[in-house]
């Protein structure tokens, strides 16, 4: 299926202005500023939310900044949000518009986490911070007035959200939902999508490999550690219901599809809308979806990696977010 025409035009404009310099050829400061700019332009007018607060989470030898965004005045559910950016890029500011979109669409309290980034802080720093954030949210749930918890992440954040959902049971934390958008849940290089969509579709295969190397270093043994590479996990029996959204023109798209296939083999948990097929037909974007085992899989064949960050630039990307966030809200309401 052809690439969405609006996104194709955006990519052509980027190429024409020379804004497609590979991330590994930029300074860290410029690369980070660039991704922040995408997030603030891609959702230039984020929806109104009930309120926003800044908090600091004590992680022992360091503090983690967090932004709390209330999608409604008295939400029942809270979502820990872990941003993308290849474990190297991403910030509270750059992801602020997307977090507000998520909060407004679900009505939930969204806790956006400013975890430590590579290469200054390699694995497992991001995992440690994510779990600190999850423990903090679970401990503060009564004070925050919420009773239902979930995790959300995109790209590298999808990897960390998956890790959090695997770790949560051993922490005594019951999650109702994981929402993972184009997740980097398999960091191995044997993805067919890396070759098929490795150039010309925003994220490149070489950039994906570079991000992984910045995070893991050159220790290939870490690919067998589920905290770094969720596909290596052997015990997934206690995972929550998970929504996995993938994009057709994404070099790491097969990572999310493999992950969804793993979750489909698990015993069912949580509620799935009876009208899922109708929701897919009415989505306003090309989508192939199914629910089986522990997963609702949504594949958007005309979209690219990072579509949730450009929800207001490309109508199809916005429609994909509304479908994904709407399903998340439905699951949370019934948890």
Automatic annotation (TrEMBL):
Q: Name one GO molecular function term.
A: hydrolase activity
User: Does RNA-binding show up as a keyword for this record?
Assistant: no
| Pfam families for the chain | Abhydrolase_3
**Matching InterPro entries:** AB_hydrolase_3, AB_hydrolase_fold, GDXG_lipolytic_enzyme
Specify the Alpha/beta hydrolase fold-3 domain's residue ranges.
79-265
Specify the superkingdom. Answer: Bacteria
Keywords from the named record: Hydrolase
Query: Mind telling me what this protein is named?
Result: Alpha/beta hydrolase fold-3 domain protein
Q: What species does this protein belong to?
A: Acidimicrobium ferrooxidans (strain DSM 10331 / JCM 15462 / NBRC 103882 / ICP)
> From which lineage does this chain's organism come?
Bacteria, Bacillati, Actinomycetota, Acidimicrobiia, Acidimicrobiales
């Amino acid at each position: 299926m052809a690439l969405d025409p609006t996104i194709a035009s955006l990519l052509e404009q980027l190429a024409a202005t020379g804004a497609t310099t590979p991330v590994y050829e930029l300074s860290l400061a410029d690369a980070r500023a660039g991704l922040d700019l995408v997030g603030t332009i891609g959702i230039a007018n984020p929806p109104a939310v009930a309120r926003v607060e800044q908090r600091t989470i004590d992680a022992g030898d360091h503090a983690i900044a967090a932004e709390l965004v209330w999608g409604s005045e008295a939400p029942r559910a809270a979502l820990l949000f872990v941003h993308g950016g290849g474990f190297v890029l991403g910030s509270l500011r750059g992801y602020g518009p997307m977090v507000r979109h998520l909060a407004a669409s679900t009505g939930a309290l969204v806790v956006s986490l400013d975890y430590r980034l590579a290469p200054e802080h390699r694995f497992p720093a991001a995992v440690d911070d994510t779990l600190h954030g999850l423990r903090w949210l679970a401990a503060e749930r009564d004070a925050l007035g919420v009773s239902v918890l979930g995790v959300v992440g995109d790209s590298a954040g999808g990897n960390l959200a998956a890790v959090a959902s695997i770790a949560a049971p051993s922490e005594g934390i019951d999650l109702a939902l994981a929402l993972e958008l184009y997740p980097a849940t398999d960091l191995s290089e044997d993805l067919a999508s890396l070759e098929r969509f490795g150039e010309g579709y925003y994220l490149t295969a070489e950039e994906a490999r570079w991000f992984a190397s910045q995070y893991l270093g050159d220790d290939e043994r870490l690919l067998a550690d589920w905290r770094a590479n969720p596909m290596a996990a052997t015990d997934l029996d206690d995972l929550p219901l998970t929504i996995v959204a993938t994009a057709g023109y994404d070099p790491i798209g097969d990572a999310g599809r493999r992950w969804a296939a793993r979750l489909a083999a698990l015993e069912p948990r949580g509620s799935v809308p009876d009208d899922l097929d109708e929701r897919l037909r009415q989505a306003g974007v090309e989508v192939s979806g199914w629910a089986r085992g522990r997963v609702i899989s949504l594949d958007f064949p005309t979209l690219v990696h990072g579509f949730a960050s450009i929800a207001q630039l490309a109508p199809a990307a916005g429609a994909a977010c509304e479908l994904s966030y709407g399903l998340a809200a439905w699951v949370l309401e019934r948890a």
